[in-house]
Automatic annotation (TrEMBL):
Key words of the record: Isomerase
Protein name listed in UniProt: N-acylglucosamine 2-epimerase
Keyword Acyltransferase: no
Family label: Belongs to the N-acylglucosamine 2-epimerase family.
GO biological process, one term: carbohydrate metabolic process
UniProt GO MF annotations: isomerase activity
InterPro entries: 6-hairpin_glycosidase_sf, 6hp_glycosidase-like_sf, AGE/CE
Length: 440
């Protein structure tokens, strides 16, 4: 149930789909049981990619094992500078703490099932339940101070989605039924607050205003969260909402041209700039494909076509053919509007590029995956102090307070409210796992 795999239905469909998509994306001629024949040369190439992500994963987890935990107050430190030293502000966010719980749970399940990792997970779980949980509604506070006292008690949908995800994953990995109950109760509370019975999806008008009533980023992570929650609980309402959010993504968020709009009015009219956030589009595509397996839609050809269309679109438009890696944003006509290389965008790229290759057999997708790993290893990765730089500007600089974008791009901090172990570990563990499954 809990396997994160390149599911059989999609693999069986890949050859037939290739013909329908485009002759520019040919599958290898020889196929066995619906999967392209793995030649010795291709096996060697995939094993090399697997080794590269394995090594990067070891480096990232070592940084967080050594630098992340706060032994005095519990949880993980709120802010770490470039060297991994705790600095101010010391407040701890729900999103970052629960993401660390998710990352270490995944690491335990697929890479290092040791008492050390389990203890880290158990301590994080205890800190989150003791200090973020609000028994009055089953949801979680947004921010606590260093020792766990509430600082900001708002209930933010994005953060709550990660509470569901992290608790469900912890429950799945360690068979903790009470963690699954916390996750399910949080879901029911959130669903009651935000469900839009008229236009469907979740209505965030009260929190974000009418022009951002529907937010692609939130929907994407809710799909991820509901997928794991359904796997661990089998709850019918979770399944219903997961199917609904998949269909919304396919029919409302992904535009006819293949890219996604970021914001919508309540009735799903697109609002704001048409800029494409490449990392979001790449991420949404593979999360839909994973969700499809959970709800028995892994052979839904329309779903696969639509998800792959948006993944291939951003794979083409966002890639830097000169230096490797993926730019931040661009317009539908292909003009890059934000040339910075953001760490989480690179993570989502390698996830999506693997799926693109697996579904099409197009080795150009592997070429881009290799070049993105080149970029990560030589530029995004901090070879001196470990972990990765949040962002690399177009001129190669990092940590400039005048840098465009969120606060985590304005310094060289390795840990902040919105920068944790989640994106790196997810990509590096999953890609290794997917390649293992593919080769075996």
């Amino acid at each position: 149930m809990s396997k994160i795999v390149a599911f059989t239905g999609i693999i069986l469909y890949s050859v037939a789909f290739t013909i329908a998509v485009d002759m520019l994306h040919p599958a290898p001629a020889d196929a066995q049981e619906g999967k392209p024949l793995i030649t010795p040369a291709m096996r060697a190439r995939l094993e090399t990619i697997r080794t590269r992500v394995h090594t990067l994963g070891d480096e990232v987890i070592t940084f967080w094992k050594e630098k992340g935990p706060d032994p005095e107050h519990g949880g993980f430190y709120g802010t770490l500078d470039r060297t991994g030293t705790p600095i101010t502000p010391t407040d701890k966010g729900l999103t970052q703490e629960i993401r660390h719980l998710w990352s270490f749970s995944i690491w335990y399940r697929y890479r290092e099932p040791t008492p050390e990792i389990k203890t880290l997970c158990d301590n994080l779980y205890a800190f989150i339940i003791s200090h973020f949980y609000d028994a009055s509604d089953g949801e979680f506070y947004f921010l606590v101070d260093e020792d766990g006292s509430p600082v900001d008690t708002k209930k933010d949908l994005y953060a709550e989605s990660f509470a569901i995800l992290g608790l469900a994953e912890y429950a799945l990995t360690f068979d903790r039924k009470e963690a699954a109950e916390y996750a399910l109760n949080c879901f029911h509370s959130v669903d009651a607050r935000f469900n839009d019975e008229v236009y469907h999806g979740y209505d965030e008008t009260d929190e974000k205003g009418p022009d951002r009533a529907k937010d692609t980023g939130d929907i994407m992570h809710l799909i991820e969260s509901f997928t794991t929650l359904y796997k661990v609980t089998g709850d019918k309402q979770v399944r219903q909402r997961l199917n609904e959010f998949i269909d919304i993504s396919l029919n409302k968020i992904i535009q006819p041209e293949g890219y996604c709009r970021m914001f919508f009015a309540r009735d799903w009219t697109p609002t704001g700039s048409p800029d494409i956030l490449y990392g979001h589009d790449l991420q949404l595509a593979w999360l839909i494909l994973q969700a499809a397996e959970a709800v028995d839609r892994s052979t839904d050809r329309a779903l696969i076509d639509r998800a792959l269309t948006t993944s291939l679109y951003s794979s083409d438009k966002g890639f830097d053919p000169e230096l490797g890696g993926y730019f931040g944003m661009g317009l539908p006509d292909g003009i890059i509007t934000w040339a910075s290389k953001i760490w989480w965008v690179q993570c989502e790229a390698i996830n999506a590029l693997w799926w693109n290759y697996q579904l099409t057999g197009d080795t150009e997708q592997l070429d881009r995956l290799d070049k993105t790993l080149d970029w990560i290893e030589t530029s995004q990765r901090d070879s001196e102090y470990g972990e990765w730089f949040a962002g690399i500007n177009e001129d190669g600089s990092t940590g400039d307070e005048n840098t465009r974008g969120p606060s985590y791009l304005k310094s060289d901090n390795k840990g902040e409210i919105m920068k944790s172990s989640y994106h790196n570990i997810r990509a590096l563990v999953f890609v290794e796992k997917w390649i293992n499954d593919y080769l075996n």
